Amino acid sequence: MTTRTPRTRTAGRRAIRRPAAAVALVTALALTAGACGGDSGEAAGGEGDGKGTIEFWDNNGGVRTPVWKKIIAAFEKKYPDITVKYVPVPITDVQSKYDTAIAGGGLPDVGGVGTAYLANMVAQNALEPVGDRIESGALKGKLSPGMVESVRAAGGEGEEMFSVPTSANQSVLWYREDLFDQAGLDAPEDWDAFYEAAEELSDQGRNRFGFTIRGGAGSIAQALDMMYAQSGVDTFWKGDKTTVNAPENVEALERYAGLYKKATPAADLNNDFTKMVAQFDSGDIGMLLHNLGSYTDHVKAFGEEKIAGIPLPPSRKGAPRTVPSQPVDGLGLFRDSDNKAAAWKFIEFAASHEMNSLWNEEAGSIPSNTDAAGDAWIEEAAPVKAAVEAVNDPRAKTVQLPYYLPDWNSVSKADNEPAFQKLLLGEMTAQEFADRLAKDLNEAQAEWKEQRKE
Amino acid sequence: MALAVAKKPRRPGRRAGGPARLPYLLISPAVLLMAGFLAYPMLSVLYYSLQHYNVTKPWRNGFAGLDNFSALLADDLFWQSLVFSARWVGVEVSLQLVFGLALALIVNQSFIGRGLSRAMVFSPWAVSGVLTTTIWILLYNPSTGVSRYLADAGIGSYGTSVLSDPDTVFWAAVLAELWRGVPFFAILILADLQSIPRDLYEAASVDGAGRVRQFLHITLPHLKDAIILSTLLRAVWEFNNVDLLYTLTGGGPAGATTTLPLYVANTGIEGHDFGYASALTTVAFVILLFCSILYLRLSKFGGERS
């Protein structure tokens, strides 16, 4: 006969409590991990007295911190009553940082705002319209008409402007002149030359590749550049339907995606722009498609004489270039600011000839201030000069991407980037990928139009 | 005759006739903290899971009822990420437990250099998730990592990228997380190992039990609660793993390493759809709650000692 020791009440309770405590801990860990969201508070703010402290968020903090420090020092010297609190925000986090601040409070007075996410912020009523301030201030008639148009289109509110453009970028086909010379290849000024060079410069046995493709974050923007430049299709919309899956674009996409692993490293599948640029600057790769922003990195890696940059070739010899519109960077004035007068002074100062020129020279991009566009440094930086010429080429066709769509970022990033990786891996055809992307874009456009009717 | 009446001792904090306020006052900071940092976020997620809430489409925001939940039942990415999460948790926790137990048994022995060995075993636990990822990205990098040097030595080929191949990325990520997770088990198990009375082993040895039998009949039963609790905690952490996979693979290639929390992060942060992301989180919570209760019931956690 076995004798059971009776469980005391206390012991029984402990036995119950321990699993219960463990479950409570587990559930708390699980649910708090996903806690997010919040109410978007009503906008407040005011003009203020034009003095005091203003907060400025740099949307490419770290990389652009030194030049902003110079601009802020010059501003504070000119306006000793105003202090600028500089907050560097990494470019990869800037959208979520703004979204969080819009939902939970804590927006700055001034912030760097790119057209790629301008519509999102306008939709959330975070930004102050700046059209009237520009017209009645020192920037009147001084901003590049093309960039002004891009900012207007990206805001999605007709003629109103929600940021002051400061710079534009342009996709550049960077190539190693020394490797091209060694291989006896011509500059990739047409598409046949580009694909021939990509193949000729590849030697996987020696870890050499002709091109590096962007397969990770930002892959679709690069793919669109390559598709429209090759196809010559010069509009993004045909009626209410996108041209993304037009036969010419699908053919171009197929050829471009076919480079993966034949003329590119396999690791390109996960490339975001930093990995891609680092890969190119490691010295084993012949060509790279990236904007002007990486110019200084290439010069640092190879020296000016070994690196060249040209705009993407036209679809065929003699045809006009067709290039998707590039995001325009700018400065936004926030609705919640209690000191809009001082904040606007800072924006005007940063977009002035001298400061805009300084910023763009250090960033290697195209200035928005028309007075700065004629400065000597542009003549000396060959890729920047070529990009400026391409932008100003009257024959060039700019394919306006729908940055105004609130869904643009999710459609062109989270929703379809994994599918682009499937395309590179051969798990999806170019037609399937283009149709999927087109379906998402058409739906987003239809919803946007419907919403504007109401 | 005077009667001496003994006074009833007063409970601390209780005034004559008044309520016992002091205990409530003392626990109130903890209650407030839990309300602020646990209850509010949890209820907030539950609330938003019943809403259409997309910050970029304010015109669609409003009460959704169970729409978000019915949408996720038809969402292939949800099921794909859930299956991957289950596989990730199962493989990671099992391997971490086995290696953690083995390391704990080794460093529990007496040998020269034991202190240094223990420090080396535990050191990966002190490294942050993002730093761990950076180390492993460098090791896996086809230009600068191990595969480059192997190719230089004639082993394999140049450009081999384990993180870009859907067939190898899972095990590459498992290895990186294993490196970080094993010390957790090793630390907990070692602490419990040191509390086992030596007499038990001596008695078992006198009775003729070998090392294997001692391990099976003394060590393992003693470690049972530590193993159950550590595997449960680790399973929850691995299920909620975002930092390592986000920075190592971004959930790719082609969604091959997207866990459910990573899908939640993409939906909320990239897609701005906080309503649907909250519904996904709520479902993840229910799944974890159910699995945790089931696990504790089946393992009879805490039963024998009490």
Automatic annotation (TrEMBL), chain A:
Q: What is this protein called?
A: Sugar ABC transporter substrate-binding protein
Domain of life of the organism in this record? Bacteria
Q: Name the SUPFAM superfamilies on file.
A: Periplasmic binding protein-like II
TM region(s), chain numbering:
none
> Which lineage?
Bacteria, Bacillati, Actinomycetota, Actinomycetes, Kitasatosporales
Which keywords appear in this protein's UniProt record, sorted alphabetically?
Answer: Cell membrane, Lipoprotein, Membrane, Palmitate, Signal
Cleavable signal peptide: 1-35
Record organism: Streptomyces zingiberis
InterPro entries reported for this sequence: Bact_solute-bd_prot1, SBP
Against CDD domains, the record matches this protein to:
PBP2_TMBP_like
TrEMBL record, chain B:
What keywords tag this UniProt record? Cell membrane, Membrane, Transmembrane, Transmembrane helix, Transport
- Record-annotated ABC transmembrane type-1 domain positions: 82-295
Instruction: Note the InterPro entries from the entry.
Output: MetI-like, MetI-like_sf
Q: Where are the transmembrane segments?
A: 21-43, 88-107, 119-139, 169-191, 244-264, 276-296
Highest rank taxon of the organism: Bacteria
The yes or no answer to whether the keyword Ribonucleoprotein is present is: no
Q: Which Gene3D superfamilies match?
A: MetI-like
Name a Pfam family for this protein: BPD_transp_1
Where located? Cell membrane
Q: State the membrane topology.
A: Multi-pass membrane protein
Q: Which PANTHER family match?
A: BLR7065 PROTEIN, INTEGRAL MEMBRANE SUGAR TRANSPORT PROTEIN
The similarity annotation says: Belongs to the binding-protein-dependent transport system permease family.
Q: What's the protein here called?
A: Sugar ABC transporter permease
